[in-house]
Amino acid sequence: MIKQKRLELKYDDLIKEPKDLEHQKDEVMDEKNKINTFISNLKNRSDSITDFDEELFNIMVDKAVVHRDKSIEFIFNSGYKVKVEARK
After folding, report:
1. For the sheet containing 61-66, what is the strand order?
2. Cβ proximity of 64 and 73 under 8 Å
3. Do 70 and 83 touch, CB atoms closer than 8 A?
């Protein structure tokens, strides 16, 4: 009976694995589409970026975290992080 239970658990894991991989694939494709859209938007701009662009900032940055020391950590949609120290 114990061997049967182990086999059932192994079977369940094997059935679950393709579903997990499909989910991961969907997430990667979503990220790829976001990046392609972002690149396309940049290419279609007629003007060069010389000043702060709020729309571009909002597209690129996922969130900004303000720390107790007044520094700000910007977390981009790509996962890249930049911490800006507070001026004294």
Report:
1. 61-66, 72-76, 81-84
2. yes
3. no
For residue range 52-70, list pLDDT tens digits in order: 888 888 888 999 999 999 9
Q: Which of 29, 23, 28, 38 is nearest to 76 (CA)?
A: 38
CB count within 10 Å of CB 73 equals 13
Predicted confidence (pLDDT) per residue in 15-49, tens digit: 888 888 999 999 999 888 888 887 887 788 777 77
**Residue 72 bridge partners (DSSP):** 66, 84
Q: What is the pTM assigned to this prediction?
A: 0.49
d(CA 3, CA 19): 25
